[in-house]
Amino acid sequence: MIEVENISKAYGETRAVQDVSLSVEAGELFGLIGPDGAGKTTLFKILVTLLLPDAGRATVAGRDVVKDFRALRSMVGYMPGRFSLYPDLSVEENLHFFATVFGTTIAANYNLIREIYVQLEPFKNRRAGALSGGMKQKLALCCALIHKPEVLFLDEPTTGVDAVSRKEFWEMLGSLKKRGLTILVSTPYMDEASLCDRIALMQTGKLLAIDTPSGVEKLFKKPLFAVKANDTYRLIQDLRQAPFTITCYAFGEFLHLTTRDGFSEQQIAHYLAERQHQAVEIRPIEAGIEDSFMDLMQHG
Amino acid sequence: MIYIITTWFAPSSIHRSSLLIMQRILYMIEKEFKQLRRNKVLLRMMLAAPVMQLILLAYAANFEVKNLKIAIVDQDHTTYAQRLAGKFRYAERRQIGNFLFQGYLPNSKSAYEELLAGRADLVLIIPPHFERDLGKENQASVQLLVNAIDGTKGGIASGYAQTIIRDFNLAIRTENIDFDAGSLAGLNVTNQYWYNPRLEYKTFMVPGILFELMLLIGGMIAALNIVREKEIGTQEQLNVTPIKKHEFILGKLTPFVIIGLIQFTLGLVVGRFLFQIPIEGSLLLIYGFAFLFMLLSVGLGLLISAISDTQQQAMFVVFFCLVIFILLSGLFSSTQDMPQWAQYLNLLNPLKYIIEVGRNVLLKGSTLRDMQSQFFTLLGMAIALIGLASWRYRKTV
C-alpha cells in the first residue's frame, strides 16, 4: 500500500531523511519509531504530498506522491503532530468544514467515525480550542477520517496525551485496522511499538531496522540483566566501569545491563557486593524493543 | 414511436463537479464569516475604524489655521498705531484671518519670551515714531515675529497678517491723499473655489480616508488572516485536501472584498450625512472602483501572506507598505509638490490613483472616461498582485 524507495530529503546541511526504503502492506498497522529529530515527520510530509523528496520515489495506494499528488490527496488521511484544526470553530463545524472540503458529508461516512464521534458528541458545540488534549486528538482523527481515506497517516498522535487517552487511542486504531484501513503511525514511545503489526526503527534520518515487534526484540543477541539496588545512581556508575559491561541504561526502577558472553549473575552480584551495594536484585531478562533500539542506535 | 435516450454522463459529471467546487468555496466563505463573527474585538474594530478615523482625521487632524495667538508691542501709542492694532484685535469679526488677541506687551524682549513660551504664535511690533514717519516720509515699517516651527502654519499666519496690514495701508493712504480707493489702479481679485467652494478640509479628506481604510482592511486583515492559518497549522491540513489553489484563494478573497465594501458603504454614509460630502458622480462608478481597489488590496494582502511565515512578519511588511503608500498618496499633501523621485515612486502607489478617483468622482462628478487612466492602472495592478500572489502561493514546498 505504501512503497518507499530510497527517499532522501535535506534542509540545507541537515539531512533529515537519508536513503529510506520501506514497504507497508494493505491493512497493516505500521509503526515508525524513533526519537525526536529522527526524520519521522519529514518522511510523513513527503508521503502525504506536503514535501517534495530530493531523491527517490514513493507511492501510496498505487499513486506516485509527486506526479499523482492531486489524486492522492483525497485518498489519504493525515493527522499532523501538532493540533491543526480551527480553534475558533466548534467540533461539529470543524468536521463539517473538512467534509465539505473533501466534497463529502458527515452523514455519508458517519459509520467510519461513529465510534470516535460519540465520545465527542456531548461537546459538539464547543470550540475546538477549548477541548482537552485527548478530545482534540479524537476530533483530529475524525477530521482525518471523514473522507474515508484508504491510508491513514498519524504523526505522533499520542505525544502529550495522558496514559488513559493513549490507551483509548490505540484501541481506536485497532478497530480502524479491522475495517481494512492501512495505518502508518509514528511515535517516540517504545511501549506503543508492540501494538503495531510491524515497526521501523528510525534515527537521524536512517532506518535501523524493519521487522515485527517480536522480530525486533530478537535482533538483540547479547546477555541482558535487570539490576536493582538501593543507591541507583552509584549502581549505574559502578556497573558502567565493570569489566563485563557493554552498556548500562536506566529502565524505570531497574537498570538494564548488557554484558559480554560468559558472565553469570553470581559474578555480577559478587562485583556489586565488593562495592557495598545493598538490597541487590539481579535477574536475566528477555530483550524488549527499547533494548534492541538502544543497541541498534549504538552499533546500527 | 421514437424513444429518445439521452446519455447525460459527461454533462452531469461536469455539472456535479462544478457544483462541488462551488459548495467548497461557499463553505470556505461561510467559515470565514463564522470565525470573524466570533472574533468580537476585530469585528468591532473593523466597524468602528471608518467612523472613528473619519471623525478624527476630518475634525481634529486638519490643516486649517485657526486661533492664531497674536500679541502686540505698541511703542508708538498714537492713533494710527491703535488703529492698526485694532485691525488685529477685531480681525475675527471681519472674517479675515483667525487671530486671537492675547494682549499688549511692553517691549520686544517680552515679545520674544511670549514666543518662546508658546503663548503667542506671532507678535506685531509697532516701532516708535510710526505715525510720524508715515505722515512725514509717507512710509513706515512694522516688525512681525512669527513662530515658524510649523512652516505651513507660520506661512499662513504671516500671510493673514500681511493682508491685514495691506488693508490698513490702503485705508490710510486713501484718507490722506483723499481719493477713492476704488479708483486706484489695480486688480481686484475675487476667488471662486470650484468643487469645494467653502474650502472645507473635511470634503478634501473624507474620500481619501475611505480608500485608505480599504487598503488597511484588505492588506492587513487579509494578510494576517492567511498567515494565521499557516501558524495554527490549518494551512498544512488544507494542503492535504483536494482543495485547489484558486479555490482557496477565492474562498479567502471574497469575504474580505465583501467586508471592505461594507466598510466603504459605512464610511460613505457617515461622510454624506455627518460631513455633508457631496456625491456628484455616479454611485455605481464609485462602487465599481471600490470593488476593483478592494481586489487590489486583498491581492496585496495575499502576496504579503505568501512571503511571510508568521503574523509578526506579515504585520511589519504591511505596516511598511501602508505607511509609504499613505504618506505618498496625496491624502495629506499634494502629490504634485513632491520631489521628482517621489513622484516616480508614486507611479506604483495604488492609493494615489484611487484617492484621485475618489476626490474627482465624489466632488467633481468625473466619469469613467475622465478616470480611465486610473482605471487601467488600478486594474493592471490588481491583476499583477493577485497573479504574483497566486504564483508565489505554492502548495507544495
TrEMBL record, chain A:
Entry-linked InterPro entries: AAA+_ATPase (IPR003593), ABC_transporter-like_ATP-bd (IPR003439), ABC_transporter-like_CS (IPR017871), ABC_transporter_ATP-binding (IPR050763), P-loop_NTPase (IPR027417)
Entry-linked PROSITE patterns: ABC_TRANSPORTER_1, ABC_TRANSPORTER_2
Keywords tagged on the record: ATP-binding, Nodulation, Nucleotide-binding, Transport
Domain ABC transporter: 2-229
The keyword Transport is annotated on this UniProt entry: yes
Keyword rRNA processing assigned: no
Pfam family, one: ABC_tran
Gene3D superfamilies (alphabetical): P-loop containing nucleotide triphosphate hydrolases (3.40.50.300)
GO molecular function terms noted in the UniProt entry: ATP binding; ATP hydrolysis activity
Protein family per UniProt: Belongs to the ABC transporter superfamily.
Name under which the protein is recorded: ABC transporter domain-containing protein
Species whose genome carries this gene: Persicitalea jodogahamensis
Lineage, top ranks: Bacteria, Pseudomonadati, Bacteroidota, Cytophagia, Cytophagales
Automatic annotation (TrEMBL), chain B:
GO molecular function term, any single one: ABC-type transporter activity
Topology in the lipid bilayer: Multi-pass membrane protein
Record keywords: Cell membrane, Membrane, Transmembrane, Transmembrane helix, Transport
Chief localisation class: membrane
Top-level taxon: Bacteria
A Pfam family of this chain: ABC2_membrane_3
Spans traversing the lipid bilayer: 41-61, 204-227, 248-271, 283-307, 314-332, 375-393
InterPro entries: ABC-2_transporter_component, ABC2_TM, ABC2_TM_bact-type
Domain ABC transmembrane type-2: 161-396
A GO CC annotation given for this chain: plasma membrane
Subcellular location: Cell membrane
Originating species: Persicitalea jodogahamensis
Protein name: ABC transporter permease
Family: Belongs to the ABC-2 integral membrane protein family.
